[in-house]
Amino acid sequence: MDQIHNMDCLKGMRKIENESIDLIFADPPYYMQTEGQLIRVEGSIYLGVNDTWDQFNSYNEYDQFSFEWLKQCQRVLKRNGSIWVIGSFQNIYRIGYIMQQLGYWIINDVIWSKKNPTPNFMGTRFTNANEILLWCTKSPKSKYTFNYKTMKHINGGKQMKSVWEIGICSGKERLRDDKGRKLHNTQKPIELLKRVILSSSRKNDVVLDPFMGTGTTAVVSKMYGRKYLGFEKEEKYVELIYHRLRKTEESIEKNLIENVYDIKEKRVPMKRLIENKFIVPGEFLFDKNGENKSQLTQSGKVLIAHSEYSIHKGSAKILGIVNNNGWDYWHVKRNDILKPINDYRKKVNETKNS
Amino acid sequence: MDQIHNMDCLKGMRKIENESIDLIFADPPYYMQTEGQLIRVEGSIYLGVNDTWDQFNSYNEYDQFSFEWLKQCQRVLKRNGSIWVIGSFQNIYRIGYIMQQLGYWIINDVIWSKKNPTPNFMGTRFTNANEILLWCTKSPKSKYTFNYKTMKHINGGKQMKSVWEIGICSGKERLRDDKGRKLHNTQKPIELLKRVILSSSRKNDVVLDPFMGTGTTAVVSKMYGRKYLGFEKEEKYVELIYHRLRKTEESIEKNLIENVYDIKEKRVPMKRLIENKFIVPGEFLFDKNGENKSQLTQSGKVLIAHSEYSIHKGSAKILGIVNNNGWDYWHVKRNDILKPINDYRKKVNETKNS
DNA sequence: CATTGATATGAATCCTACG
DNA sequence: ACGTAGGATTCATATCAAT
Asked: In CATH terms, is domain B3-262 a member of 3.40.50.720?
């Protein structure tokens, strides 16, 4: 693993095994269709994308190309893998349509809202301040990875929205030659890839980038303990990527690498606590204030008004809501002190793992 | 004009004349697979590209439907009219693709970023906090209306971006029955339609809404002096719209209605100022400080270093930039006081109009 | 050293009314 | 329809120089 091939995307993709990739990030050409030159008032020329890799003869040709590489992506993705594709209004509606035709299932359309976009010099339309990322699974039934709590943590404790405000890649992050000229027209920011990779993959997962460019996907994969694989057909960029990767070190954010916010307690049936003699059928469970006591049955249920409920449904019943986490609600009395039953769940898990 | 028809969209559209509409706002349904029933439409849709795509095509009916009404919209739009379509990830990639196939030209994809979206209760994806509006002309060559300065004014003096942060429709604006239940699931906020209508139409323009719903398009059209026209197939909504419109009054923002920020001075050739004897060939023009004087030629050009330039190119030459507005730069001396030549342009225009 | 100011630049479908 | 002349138009950052 951790391979970078100086190779055309389609040629490379065909060499990858079926269902071997956990996550794909693809930044294909956008087919911008710009004409002439855009000149600022002071006379300087705006250097946009005029690269040969963005040249196509028609939508049809662009669609065929997109269809081919997206089909390959679908083949190599694991059953529960997922894919992100970034684009702009020129191409993303074609990409989205083709992906839906291929059976991909859209989880989110994430908006990259640029804090500092290129303004519209001529005042002819709204400043084009966004790009769109389609996050999809290969089919509607995929059990995809989503590190919900990690993203919530990064977002300051609130669940992360589908609109991401991130600056364009500039300053020291932007790769330049010794004359200060940008080395690639469309280098993507680290922050963007950080969110993509941390949200939808786990440590040691294999991340594929079919159009590497400056290799931000590989760089962020290395930073956060993922394996990377990708293709870039222009040799000058491949050398750039190698050089960039050599200077890349693992992130100091170990909690994010180890995914601690999204590690889930193993499920434990209540009966297991009885089998392990942590609690005894017939004893009483209490809420955190020592009130609302309920008796425990042989089968690990709670008795409320002569009816049996699971610890979860039972606590919900008392709270007058539909669902509740009983592990956080119930306590037992030990030496007259209330002890959360969740402590015993953890003990059971520790016993199993040892 | 100002008609609301209790009628199916397609049936209604067929009664509209060719090239008679200035602006369309469409909020089409996007029940795609399980929800609701789709209208059967005649004929078949050929979107080009690749027949093998049909293998997964559960979207066919939706595409047919979208194709039909979008084709009608293209027919009824004036040459220089434009259309907005709003959707979310379930349908907007189909809409965008079909529009491009039909030859529509995307001006912007505007993101409605919701300040207060419905949270994702299960924590299974990013909070879906955006909808997308595609703003398109019927062909790449259309000279569409864009009230750039009006939008810049609304946006506090900065050019408006393609990402709009607007709250969802709630509070007093949200239409409810006497039991407080919302009357429509997808009522669009006034602020959203205000931006759509003010940016891309002028006073007395005809605004069409093929899927009226709660009629926000008509309401905002009335508020800002546009004519409205639309279809809604459910009678209960039609009655709601009538009721809502009766309570709607013209906005107090007269400057926005009269479009004062985007009214342009009529073009005047410099020669006209000579013909009207406001200025005399041979006299000198000055910048606002009385420096940088240049002599005026017979043909209304300025002489700089023995070369003739238009007043615009000439002032730009002096400023060392590519282009400049000569009307704002040049002055003549009258009784030893500098007088902007732009004053004479205004006089010429007043003479023409009287 | 801190502050101010000048300069450079970024995935861009970037002009249009009149004759 | 088309060519031509008239004339309208930018924002957030980063860097570096100057005060």
From this structure: no
